[in-house]
Amino acid sequence: MHDAPSPAELISAVKSFIDDTAAPQLTGHAAFYARVASNVLSTLLREIEQRPAAEAEELAGLKALLGTQAGDSIQSLNRTLCEQLRTGSMSISTPGLLEHLKTTTIAQLSIDQPQYSGLKAARAPRS
């Protein structure tokens, strides 16, 4: 039986130590760097929790937009998308493009900058 802590549990334990034990005793630069370290760990936790679903959704969106075959990577499909945008063979008027770009941007911001002021508005359904 494999019962070791998961990477997320290990990161959470270190973050809790920094936030609850170490940081309250620090001042000046050390306190600042403790906040930076805590923020980095928060980002890593969001990566672990959110990235797999975000990448699966992005891959599905790219395949739908580009009509590609199975086996293409997100990186190669994004290069293809960029090339099609650069050459003008795809534009903002291409069906599904704007929604794909919005969805992938929201997913990335949710991981990198979840407190970004425009993120809540971007997530809200349009009426």
TrEMBL record:
<feature type="domain" description="DUF6285">
    <location>
        <begin position="24"/>
        <end position="116"/>
    </location>
</feature>
<dbReference type="InterPro" id="IPR046252">
    <property type="entry name" value="DUF6285"/>
</dbReference>
<dbReference type="Pfam" id="PF19802">
    <property type="entry name" value="DUF6285"/>
</dbReference>
<protein>
    <recommendedName>
        <fullName>DUF6285 domain-containing protein</fullName>
    </recommendedName>
</protein>
